[in-house]
From TrEMBL:
Belongs to the UbiA prenyltransferase family. Protoheme IX farnesyltransferase subfamily. This is Protoheme IX farnesyltransferase. The lineage of its organism: Bacteria, Bacillati, Cyanobacteriota, Cyanophyceae, Leptolyngbyales. Carbon 2 of the heme B porphyrin ring is defined according to the Fischer nomenclature. It comes from Leptolyngbya iicbica LK. The keyword Repeat does not apply. Keywords: Cell membrane, Heme biosynthesis, Membrane, Transferase, Transmembrane, Transmembrane helix.
Length: 331
């Protein structure tokens, strides 16, 4: 691993117990984890058609959080040099010396081992293994291999963030279906617009430490074009959940279409003014809301109460039509 010449292991701190807990909490980059868990839960509910055993749901979300926290901790160890050099990340626990490398590594290994053991015990070995694959892809493919060497770093490495839906599906069914892989594809295609919108805003930081994030290398306009292309691909892909897969119904289909329309409009606006940072920031924020709402749409759609309401409604429409049609046709 290369470390920049400015980084030196800082003098250890002598913090109180609660300060130490806070530092370990920060090491896990906790603000990103809830969305990964929302994806996992949505996938579980779609797989189980609305009713999941509470213990299975709880344990899968807990182990998912532990695995993601482990992955982020290892990322913080690996990236300590560039994190020290970037304003935005300088105050993270390792660059600021609040957590030592060895302690962070032990913490990450304990989290991963606990996640694997608990998930195998309560769910199954496939979902537990997928969590470990998530860590391996984020650390090995994204952080080590691509982050510092390719503009496609977050496209290929972004596969890590798309693994939670696979974990959720496997936890419920013990296998991976087309619908599980489609949910994976949705997050995979969503990641570039999500991250590049933010990267447009914070590109100077990445440029300073030589990380070749797309806008740093190709500029604002080419990045906005890529964002537009991925968004254009994303919206129809989300609809495949309903037709032809029938993993979700029309309620989700309508929600996906509405959310996708807003995403497309925002990506289009950015394409018109690629260097408008407010536009990029707005798209980044919306991308998070989009993924939350899309997952919520899947959950609402899969609930037994929604399914029952749709069945009752379509029966009413059918009855109404069978009364109306003879009147209209004069039969
Ligand atoms: C390789 C893929 C990804 C990269 C490089 C990336 C990068 C980032 C960065 C740099 C931030 C700003 C965080 C900060 O200021 O410390 C962020 C925010 C965020 N990311 Fe991503 N992200 C990726 C994929 C994902 C995925 C898959 C999810 C979840 C499904 C996700 C969810 C979030 C959320 C919820 C935030 C907002 C956190 C906040 O409240 O500040 N990201 N992302
Ligand atoms: C199933 C499982 C365990 C999945 C884990 C996947 C995972 C942790 C995805 C998170 C992706 C992410 C937020 C990257 C941040 O990039 P960065 O670290 O380069 O950002 P930085 O510039 O803020 O350091």
């Amino acid at each position: 691993m290369q470390t920049s010449p400015t980084w030196q292991s800082p003098t250890p701190h002598h913090d109180s117990f609660w300060q130490v807990c806070r530092s370990y909490w920060q090491l896990t980059k906790p603000r990103i984890i809830p969305l990964l868990l929302i994806e996992t839960a949505a996938s579980m509910l779609v797989a189980a058609q609305g009713t999941v055993e509470p213990l299975l749901l709880l344990v899968t979300l807990l182990t998912g959080a532990l695995a993601a926290a482990s992955a982020q901790s290892i990322n913080c160890i690996y990236d300590r040099d560039i994190d020290f050099d970037m304003e935005r990340t300088r105050h993270r626990p390792i660059p600021s010396g609040r957590i030592q490398l060895r302690d962070a590594l032990i913490f990450a290994v304990v989290l991963a081992a606990t996640a694997f053991a608990l998930q195998t015990l309560v769910a199954n070995v496939l979902s537990a293994t997928l969590e470990m694959v998530g860590i391996a892809v984020y650390v090995g493919v994204y952080t080590h291999w691509l982050k510092r060497s390719s503009t496609q770093n977050i496209v290929i490495g972004g596969a890590a963030g798309a693994i939670p839906p696979l974990v959720g599906w496997a936890a419920v069914t013990g296998e991976l279906s087309w619908a599980a892989w489609l949910f994976f594809a949705i997050v995979f295609i969503w990641t570039p617009p999500h991250f590049w919108a933010l990267a447009l805003v914070i590109q100077d930081d990445y440029a300073k430490v030589g990380v070749p994030m797309l806008p740093v290398v190709v500029g604002d306009e080419a990045t906005a074009k890529q964002i537009w292309a991925y968004t254009l691909l994303l919206v129809p892909i989300t609809l495949l959940m309903t037709v032809p897969l029938h993993a979700t119904g029309w309620v989700y289909g309508a929600i996906a279409l509405y959310l996708g329309w807003i995403f497309l409009r925002k990506a289009w606006d950015l394409l018109q003014t690629p260097s408008d940072r407010d536009q990029a920031k707005s798209l980044f924020k919306y991308s998070i809301l989009y993924m939350m709402a899309l997952s919520a749409g899947m959950v609402i759609d899969s609930l037994p109460v929604t399914r029952a309401a749709i069945t009752a409604l379509s029966q009413q429409v059918y009855e109404f039509a069978s009364v109306l049609m003879p009147l209209l046709t004069g039969a």
